[in-house]
Amino acid sequence: MEKKTAEFIREQNMIEEGDVVLAGVSGGSDSMAMLGLLKSLSRQLGFSLCAVHVHHGIRGPEADRDGNFVREICSQWGIPCRIFYYDVPKLSREWKKGEEETGRIVRQEAFKEAAREYAGERRVRVALAHNREDLAETMIHNLCRGTGIRGLCTMRPVSGEIIRPVLCLGRDEIVHYLEENHIPHIQDSTNDSDSYTRNRIRHHILPLLEQEINSRAAFHMAETALRLAQAEDYLCEQGKILAEEFYQGEEGYLFPEEFGHKPQILQKYALQQAVEQLAGKRKDITAVHIENVLKLFSMPTSRKISLPYHLLARRDYAGVRLYREEQSAKSCASEDLKWEMAIPGVTVCPYGEFRTEIISYNGQKIEEKKYTKWLDYDRIEKNPCIRTRRSGDYMVINSSGDTKKLNRCMIDRKIPADRRDQIPLVVCDRDVLWMVGDRISERYKITPETRRVLVLEYQGGYGNE
Predict the structure, then answer these.
(1) What's residue 264's pLDDT?
(2) What is residue 171's predicted lDDT score, i.e. its pLDDT?
(3) What pLDDT does residue 120 have?
């Protein structure tokens, strides 16, 4: 196992002599196997090793047990260990983000803090203990949700400073390594629950594929992901080269009519690269945004669409122009700016992307996610719109139908004053159905009498950049 891992590290150019490797260690089987392998290989490959453990403040005594376990093992093995404590539930409320997203942010901060000790001295690598089945589960998850090539190869052996040394190993190999080397590990109780989508894939879907289709399904999916990553990198580079032909400096990009004669896949990658370049980031820019820009080529002049991060695409006589909107997000709150919501369908506006669908309600479990809400569709009398707050806005706050001014609701929810004009709202006239990222109106909550549900899903923009 050590030889296989060492070859994988060399093939992928993960670690150079003199590097510092910060290993994310939860105490579970995968991270303990990775820590054991890196400990054994550190002298051979000439790198320093430090363990990083993050206590999320969620699982009480079990989380305390995990931290103590990692500290004790590292002490026995002579490995420096940094343990970081965060109150994720509290931070989640303060930041108006879900606990999963908040956990991801604090883990990144923990690694940044640990890396500061070596700033300017040596290169730092962050080692994560994803294995081959983790990669397969991610591919299945993204494929079922809808994705392009990028979503099928997101879990790479090397991504910036992040490395995945055990991505070449399957779970059965990891179990064998732990047993053979008598390496202790602990079990996170949440891994047994089928409440999480990834766990359902892990416990049911992937095993079924391996039992009924091919016993090496995860292995072949990992091989495919590697090929897809190569294809994605090539297409991104070709898209970047093509987009640069039409770059006009501060005026953005102008894609002329002849751009439409290029292979469509190159058109999409060129537009993707242009949008990401103007936005300065990749997050929240989806295939729907790119498709909508392409549609402008077949539309009359002066038609335009809004994109995330205050970008605009406009059809004019010379082609399609892509540029940064001059006005700020706050100015978008003026009285004449609102976007009618497509039901069912997708609505893209400066505040992000809204997906809607209508489903029949038969008493099924209600989605309680922060950015997915279920509303009683039969109670909604007009087609909802998307905008920011205006004078006179209100919310229904209880089952009796009592209302409260929206500004008062925001104060009660402890939303900072400088952020209130940035929060997207789903409204019918002055009646606020949903304050995105926060509460929904009591008037439209699901009841036993509900027959049709409006499912709202929000992606990107406020509080999620």
Answers:
(1) 94
(2) 93
(3) 73
Tell me what pLDDT residue 330 has: 40
Q: Would you call 422 helix, strand, or coil by DSSP?
A: helix
Exposed e or buried b per residue across 216-249, where buried means at least 16 C-beta atoms within 10 angstroms of its C-beta: ebbbebbeebbebbeebeebbebbbebbeebeee
- The pLDDT score that the predictor gives to residue 53 is 96
Q: Helices marked H in 46-151 — which ranges?
A: 61-77, 88-95, 99-115, 132-145
Helix (H, G, I), strand (E, B) or coil at 368: coil
User: What is the predicted pLDDT for the residue at 404?
Assistant: 94
Count CB atoms within 10 A of the CB of residue 172: 12
CA distance 439 to 375: 12
Q: What angle do CA 314, 317, 319 make, to 5 degrees?
A: 60
Contact 308, 352 (CB under 8 A): yes
For residue 321, what are the contacts with CB-CB under 8 A and spacing of at least 6?
Answer: 251, 252, 253, 254, 255, 313, 314, 315
296 phi and psi angles, rounded to 5 deg: -60, -25
CA distance 414 to 94: 9
Encoded amino acid at 239, one letter:
G
Alpha-carbon span 336 to 332, nearest angstrom: 9
Cβ atoms 331, 310 nearer than 8 A: no
Q: Is the pTM of this model over 0.85?
A: no
Residue pair 122/39 in contact (Cβ under 8 Å)? The answer is no
**Looking at residue 327, what is its pLDDT?**
41
Nearest to 234 by CA among 296, 150, 165, 342: 150
pLDDT in tens, 125-173: 999 999 999 999 999 988 887 788 988 988 999 999 999 999 999 999 9
Residue 47 CA to residue 17 CA, distance in Å, equals: 5
User: Which residues touch 148 (CB under 8 Å, ≥6 apart)?
Assistant: 287
According to the model, what pLDDT value does residue 145 have? 79
CA-to-CA distance for 239 and 230, rounded, in angstroms? 14
Predicted pLDDT at 334:
43
3-state secondary structure of 337: coil
Is 44 strand, coil or helix?
helix
Ranges of residues in the chain whose predicted pLDDT is under 70 = 188-196, 326-336, 367-368, 460-465
Q: What pLDDT sits at residue 463? A: 43
Rounded CA-CA distance 189/170 in Å is 21
The CA distance from 122 to 344, in Å, is 53
Distances, alpha carbon 349 to alpha carbons 191, 268, 294, 374, in Å: 38, 20, 16, 21
Are the CB atoms for 79 and 63 separated by under 8 Å? no
Query: What is the separation of C-alpha 369 from the centre of its chain, rounded to a whole number of angstroms?
Result: 14
